[in-house]
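#structure-requests
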Amino acid sequence: MRRNYEALFGAFYEIYFDYKSEKMSDAEAIACTADAYFGVQSRGEMEKAVVYISEGRICLTHSKIFIKAKERIVEALNSLDLHKLQIETTPDEYKDILERRDMVLDEIDNIPVDYSPYTRWYYHEMEKEVKNYFGIIVNEVENKNEMIEKVLERFERECTNTLSENIVVKTTLVELLIRYDIKGKEQFVEIRKELEQFDINDVGEQLTEAEKVDLSIRISNLLMLTGA
């Protein structure tokens, strides 16, 4: 039983990091991993415990947790049949599972809750991802006017996924273009126009109220700097 127990924990994490290597957000990667393990938890109490503990532990490393995912994890861990679990595991495994379960249940309330059903990059994570990519290519691209095209190509999937991702990508991109004095291209004008027409209320629950305020200030500053 020990090999299967340890292998299941390892496999869950491996699949999660495989999804992350595909440039997925934390939220999308864990959602895809949970989907990949759908049905595994019904094979036995040990499998149920390992799957939900693994999902919960990964969620503890994220900046937010989707409300329904949190409810599902908490309900599953609180409803474990400890008698069945004890039969299916060794004494050491049983003790280890309970310790891991309790850790997830104790700490999961410390993670801010996301109420939006859209799986996406969160505000500060999206900003950081754009900055990281920009920093990598800025010294590699000879024609700086190609920077806009390359960044938009890299984040095309995110820009078409949700409005919040789209506007954060473009706000961050314009900030970087101004910082590096790269502007004047037609695409720059188009992005600036999109920012000017953007209504912060349209993002709904994709951003928190604090994030909406911060983004609004950033956009207003950009519009003033670029002549609005």
